[in-house]
Design a protein that fits this description.
It is a single chain. This protein has about 350 residues and is α/β, with parallel strands linked by helices. It contains ten helices and 15 strands. The chain has a three-stranded mixed β-sheet. Strands 3-4-5 form a three-stranded mixed β-sheet, with no helix packed on it. Strands 6-7-8 form a three-stranded mixed β-sheet, sandwiched between helices. The chain is globular, with a radius of gyration of 22 Å.
């Protein structure tokens, strides 16, 4: 299985979703709900879109863990990838968030589910950096190449290089930081709106990196991994074409199938040659989520991938002789010594 494409994901079903006014200042992709549309209507439409995404991923054979969120003070909780990431080997990272009303999106029940159903060795929590005014919003701020261990990061209020370097030291990634701006000179708020790294393909808006030398370094770093590079335009980025994620599903025959999950709007913005380049290695699964996209994020933002080994069910777990011995009423260890349960 590709280390890049997780076979399980976390989605949050936010019943009180609305575009977050606290994030509008630095998110040029964010829009208001249509005039006259009530918050209840907006939330109901978003819920239907979330359910449609979950259904599409399950139909593609991806394991989907859905968490409900009825808290009206967390309008952006539909985007869990900003506070949580998981990593092969059993490590979980928890991140510092820029907007104060997003900080309580971090949920103990999500972490407990991961610990109970997957092999988690350690949780590294960077959220204590928030009082220092430095932030790194997970796999929104970073686009991770899990195979070649590179963290592509567009600098912004939400992606502090100091925290990036700390993350890279802890998780053994190479930091690849750069500036990225739109045609108006506005910095890109999250790297994952302009870039997506899959197993054999990468989508990226290189034209939005103004420093030509740095742009070529990023291009070369991606190319040396052997990936096909699909260059996106700024207009395609505004249609959320960069906000995609590769996942590993299962077909009806049980065989692995790699999919590129993105929104219908994103898919429609791609040229036929770009679609063909993506579909050489994975199948595009597109779901329309126009209401959720009002918040300035798309399908990638909604998905927290699980790069952890799954725990076997207890009934299937191997019990060693030593464990059997200490589970007995009158246990004896393999060397014949009696174990006093009251000791």
């Amino acid at each position: 299985m590709s280390a890049q494409a997780p076979s399980a994901v976390i989605l949050v079903r936010a019943t009180h979703y609305v575009p977050n006014p606290a994030t509008a200042a630095d998110n040029a992709f964010q829009s208001d709900a249509p005039a006259g549309q009530s918050d209840d209507t907006t939330s109901a439409m978003a819920l239907a879109e979330m359910d449609a995404l979950a259904a599409a991923l399950r139909a593609a054979g991806v394991r989907v863990h859905v968490f409900d969120d009825d808290d009206h003070t967390r309008p952006d909780s539909v985007f869990p990838n900003n506070w949580l990431s998981t990593h092969a080997g059993g490590t979980v990272a928890v991140y510092p968030m820029y907007a104060s009303n997003r900080r309580h999106e971090r949920r103990a029940d999500v972490l407990e589910m991961l610990k109970s159903e997957y092999r988690v060795q350690a949780i590294i929590d960077y959220s204590g950096l928030e009082p220092d005014g430095v932030f790194l919003e997970g796999t929104g701020a970073m686009v991770l190449d899990h195979v070649s261990r590179v963290a592509y990061t567009a600098r912004s209020h939400r992606a502090d290089v100091t925290v990036l370097e700390r993350f890279c030291t802890d998780f053994n990634y190479e930091p690849m930081a750069f500036d990225a701006v739109d045609s108006d000179g506005v910095p890109v708020y999250h790297t994952n709106v302009i870039a997506c790294v899959g197993t054999e393909v990468a989508l990226i808006a290189l034209e939005m990196i103004p420093d030509e030398h740095r742009r070529e370094q990023v291009r070369e770093r991606l190319a040396v991994t052997g990936r096909t590079i699909v260059e996106l335009t700024e207009q395609q980025v505004r249609e959320f074409a960069g906000n995609a994620v590769e996942l590993c599903g299962r077909g009806p025959d049980g065989k692995r199938r790699y999919i590129m999950a993105m929104s219908g709007r994103a898919c429609r913005s791609l040229r036929p040659d770009q679609v063909a380049a993506i579909e050489e290695s994975c199948e595009i699964v597109a779901v329309d989520i126009p209401t959720i996209e009002l918040a300035g994020g798309s399908v990638r933002c909604m998905i927290a991938g699980i790069h952890l080994d799954r725990r076997p069910p207890l009934a299937e777990a191997e019990i060693t002789e030593a464990v059997e011995a200490i589970n007995e009423d009158n246990p004896t260890t393999p060397d014949g010594r009696y174990v006093d349960g009251n000791a």
